[in-house]
Amino acid sequence: MYCCNSLFWIYILFDVAITLLYVYINEKSEEKEKSIKIKWIEEHYFAFSFLCMLLCWSPYILCYLPGSVPHDGYWQLNMAFGINPLTNHHPWVITFIYGVVMRIGRYISDNFGIFMIVAIFTVIEILCYASVCNSLKKWGASKKVYIGTLVFFSVVPAFGGYAQAVIKDNIFTALLALFFIIYIDICIQHGKNIEIKKMVILFLVGMMVCLSRNNGVYIVIPSMVCLILYVQKERSRYVILLICLMVCYQGLEGYVAPQLGVEKGSVKEVLSIPFQQTARYIKEYPEEVTLKEKKAINDILSYDGIKENYNPEISDFVKNTFREGSEDK
């Protein structure tokens, strides 16, 4: 009897010991597994950021399959297929890319062509934003900053929601973010010798920003001038880079585009703000507008049209009353 009791307690102690050992090993294993996962994320933050954004943007893309085509995107597709006159009202390079991708996709169906445009541009946009997140980590930003930035790009609907749309603003915004990440990286290292490769990348991304939206050049060129004034080493290289940017851009816009039959966009696009100011003045203080001012305005815009259609948030309604041929006035 005594022997049986002893064996029983030995069994209990052995069972408890084995259980505790199992729990300990399991916890260590989970900690190690968790540590491996965290280490992988830390070492491959670019890939992790890309996958997170792709996952978070996917519901928008799936819900709107094959993708939505707003007015501007529809207009560009019509220009690419010769339905509308080919102009630089919307950046012609993006218009040509839309046309090429759409033609390839149409071998399967029209919808597949739209989906191909959305898919290709979405991947490019995510690559740009993933570079932003990865650069912040590389620069030594706190976890709150670079993880918060990833969360921002992943969950704010302005990014994923617009990714499913065929519109130039998406790619322009992503390329602009990438341009300034490279730009800031060069500024951080301004006292060191910058690799030629990085300068070439800055040039290429800068060109893409200029060509993805007509006002992109007004951001890139002044930024490059500021960079030249800021850097301490190899300033002449940045001067050459700026000259190359200007020559290439002017060559594409001034020579290549006309050769391809691209007409210049209307001057009204650069006058949105003064047009809006004029419309607001007419709307709020019509009694102060003199006959001479009314005639001058009416020669360029439809006076009655802008008074009725003025919208403080959108300039299109006012711009659309612009009288073509009045550029000299």
Supply database-style keywords:
329 residues, mainly alpha, 3 domains, 15 helices, globular
Total number of domains? 3
Structural class: mainly alpha
Helix count from the secondary structure assignment: 15
Percent of sequence in beta strands: under 5%
Radius of gyration computed on alpha carbons: 29 Å
**What would you call the shape?**
globular
Major sheet size, sense and barrel closure: none
Number of strands: 0
Helix content: over 70%
Low-confidence runs: none
Q: Provide the succession of SSEs.
A: HHHHHHHHHHHHHHH
Q: Give the overall average pLDDT.
A: 83
Distance between the termini: 116 Å
Protein name: Glycosyltransferase RgtA/B/C/D-like domain-containing protein
Transmembrane segments: 6-25, 45-67, 112-133, 145-165, 171-188, 200-231
Keywords: Membrane, Transmembrane, Transmembrane helix
Pfam families: DUF6020
Structure in words:
Keywords: Membrane, Transmembrane, Transmembrane helix. The chain crosses the membrane at residues 6-25, 45-67, 112-133, 145-165, 171-188, 200-231. InterPro entries: DUF6020. It holds the Pfam family DUF6020. With 329 residues, the chain is mainly alpha-helical. It has 3 domains: 1-43; 45-259, no CATH class; 267-319, no CATH class. It is 74% helix and 0% strand. It has 15 helices and no strands. The longest helix is centred in the N-terminal third of the chain and has 42 residues, at 2-43. The chain is globular.
